[in-house]
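Re: that backbone. Tokens:
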């Protein structure tokens, strides 16, 4: 934790067809075209921020990538494979929201180990994985705590560790820090960047905070009324 390591070499471009590709993706709610013919590529290991005002369609785009919204047009592909027939839980993507939605009846360790258990880890292998994840998010030794006694920032770290524990190939982050106060947000933004870099996980970060996007992401794309605009390195 701490420090901002440089991103993985070669993770900056996505022209190879590797990683995620949204092609001409639209999502409609009745007359409203919430996501309007969006093209977006995320290379393996790359973190892309989607920045835009409230209601511009950011969350809907994430949900479409996750397979939680039907597409009115276009395709979502991973390594060139169309995911249309792949259910959400089979896509290998994890989602993390503003409110980390921890399981209040489970210890921190059980929360963090949840995804790893789904991957089949048990016993000492599971314990080692939980310890690794807790270390990754700066919460070593807190495994037996009740998550609801942790601060908001600590809870978000647990949520992040739990998401990473599922071993996702892509993590979808929907305003993961916006419930926190500014000081904590700035600190956790730097931590989030280093955790994503250390784990080599591809990510899409949705936010309306320009500074947060700049700190966390390799690339920032602007969304406005359902459409993606400029790309700034
Ligand atoms: N299930 C739904 N049914 C109808 N309209 C919806 C639904 N979900 C989202 N919308 C509408 O789609 C548009 C985009 O919403 P979305 O939540 O994607 O925006 P957002 O950019 O993530 O906003 P915020 O930053 O406030 O979370 C909004 O006009 C919203 O009202």
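Recovered sequence:
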């Amino acid at each position: 934790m701490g420090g901002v390591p440089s991103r993985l070499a070669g993770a900056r471009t996505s022209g190879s067809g590797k990683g995620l590709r949204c092609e001409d993706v639209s999502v409609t709610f009745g007359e409203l075209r919430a996501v309007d013919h969006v093209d977006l590529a995320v290379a393996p290991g790359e973190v892309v921020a989607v920045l835009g005002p409230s209601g511009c369609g950011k969350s809907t785009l994430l949900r479409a990538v996750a397979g939680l919204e039907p597409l009115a047009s276009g395709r979502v592909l991973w390594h060139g494979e169309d995911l249309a027939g792949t259910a959400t839980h089979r896509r290998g993507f994890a989602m993390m929201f503003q409110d980390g939605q921890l399981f209040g009846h489970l210890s921190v360790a059980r929360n963090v180990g949840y995804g790893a258990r789904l991957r089949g880890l048990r016993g000492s292998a599971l314990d080692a994985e939980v310890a690794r994840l807790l270390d990754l998010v700066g919460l070593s030794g807190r495994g037996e705590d009740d998550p609801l006694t942790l601060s908001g920032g600590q809870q978000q770290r647990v949520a992040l560790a739990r998401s990473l524990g599922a071993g996702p190939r892509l993590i979808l982050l929907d305003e993961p820090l916006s419930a926190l106060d500014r000081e904590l947000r700035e600190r956790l933004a730097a931590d989030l960047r280093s955790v994503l870099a250390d784990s080599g996980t591809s990510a899409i970060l949705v936010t309306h905070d320009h500074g947060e996007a700049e700190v966390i992401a390799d690339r920032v794309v602007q969304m406005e009324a359902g459409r993606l605009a400029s790309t700034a390195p």
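Residues 64 and 176 are 18 Å apart (CA to CA). The domain at 14-92+203-233 is CATH 3.40.50.300 (Rossmann fold).
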